[in-house]
Amino acid sequence: MPTHLDGSLFADVYGTPEARAVFSQEGFVASFLRVEAALARAQAEVGLVPSHAAETIVDGAARDAVGASDIERHTAPGKIFSVAVLEAWLETLPESAARYVHWGVTTQDVSDTAVVLQLREWLDAVLSDLDALGDRLVELAERHRDTAAVGRTNHVHATPTTWGLRFASWLDELSRRVTRLRAVREEVTVVQCFGATGTLASLGEDGLAVQEALADRLGLAVPAVAWFAARDRFAALTSAVATAAGTLARVAKQVLLCNRPEVGEVTEPVPADAVGSSTMPHKRNPLRSQVAVAMAHRIRARAAEMHARQSGYDERDYATWVGEFGLLPEVCLAFGRQARAVREVLDGLTVDESVAERNLEHHGGLVASERVMMALADRVGKEAAHRVVHEAATEAVEGNDDFVSVLSADDRVTDHLSDEEIRALTDPTAYTGLAGRLVDRAVASVDR
């Protein structure tokens, strides 16, 4: 029976419709039969299987002849699931073709290659979402190139930054993660066709030709040797996904922080008819960002488990292999949902420039204390200037006067800086350094 996670209540929390279709039982069976059909044609090309039998096998694989109930009749405790698929499918084929199905290969050959096809389809879809996310970050970075905002380090106000530079930081990191995912896509998309222990003994001298023909038909590469026990490719994939999930979680956490009413610099889009609470009518919860953070936790845990399963025994180890059929879909479903959620957040994200400016003026330009210190340091030296400005900043935070007023009342400051200079130096919007040029550089560096 399906779990509650498979129903309409939770399905879209843990995955997208596209990813669920790819990793459904139907999706796996379709990929499995696609590999069997390509294998039959490849073997017919080199004369191992009669052409008429190969064509019947191909037609039979394309008819969607194997349903869930057919497979269920052949499942049993202790039976390998791929054998159940084969047995159900063979019932639909004439004996003249069925005798050549799965010729000289092992079920892991077909299952591994089927999973590779699923992963490639999923990666192409999720990379499309990430590319769109990158385009949106470029747009936001350019639009808010010079929108000054409070910088924060260690959870408190630091020197000013810009929202454009913040978006550029996300863009820069995302770009690296997309590059890595594209690289791991190439690493993973390899065929498995080596026979029982990876020697190709069952196919004889035609084995390498069958490999090449099968890989060519499926658009996959041919690895040097079998990877039945070497699961590093899938471990690399889950690691790359987990790292990318961390990037998206960083974005989501920053949105959650700055979406808080007491900060209010950005607003996550919330549907007008969304109900945020069964008892508090005013609630408009930033659910998408929270989902993005939650999915990152789920992905990291599964990636760690994949690494733990990486070291199998001998030429093949079912204990290692079988776990992947639970792990890989969970990782992919969760990351697909996370990427879609962050894309939806940023597509509708708004930056309130007036609130950003208001937050900069907290305690009267206090976040520009470094600028005041550097100007005073030219007159009295770095250490002395730091001590004077630190005392003024502390008084502004703990007392009743703002930073400008405290500075203007201190002879150690006014002996060297005029009131006009103090006002100019404490304007936080004028102390964003080279942020604009750094935004330009980040945007220009993105491979679009």
What's a concise summary of this model?
The chain is mostly helical.
What does this entry look like structurally?
The protein has three domains: 104 residues, Orthogonal Bundle (Fumarase C, Chain B, domain 1); 237 residues, Fumarase/aspartase (Central domain) (Fumarase C, Chain A, domain 2, Up-down Bundle); 61 residues. Helix content is 63%, strand content 4%. The protein is built from 21 helices and four strands. A two-stranded antiparallel sheet has the order 1-2. A two-stranded antiparallel sheet has the order 3-4. The radius of gyration is 30 Å and the shape is elongated.
Question: Which tags fit this structure?
Answer:
448 residues, mainly alpha, Fumarase C, Chain B, domain 1, Fumarase C, Chain A, domain 2, two-stranded antiparallel sheet, 4 strands
Helix content: 55-70%
Count of structural domains:
3
β-sheet strand percentage: under 5%
Compute the number of helices.
21
- Which CATH-level-2 architecture of the largest domain? Up-down Bundle
Q: What's the CATH superfamily of the largest domain, by name?
A: Fumarase/aspartase (Central domain)
Please state how the strands of the largest beta sheet are arranged side by side. Answer: 1-2
Major pleated sheet: 2 strands, antiparallel
Helix and strand pattern? HHHHHHHHEEHHHEHHHEHHHHHHH
Task: Name the overall outline.
Answer: elongated
Instruction: Provide the CATH top-level class of the largest domain.
Output: Mainly Alpha
CATH topology of the largest domain: Fumarase C, Chain A, domain 2
Extended strand count: 4
Structural class: mainly alpha
Low-confidence stretches: none
Report the average pLDDT across residues. Answer: 93
Radius of gyration: 30 Å
- Give the termini distance in whole angstroms: 45 Å
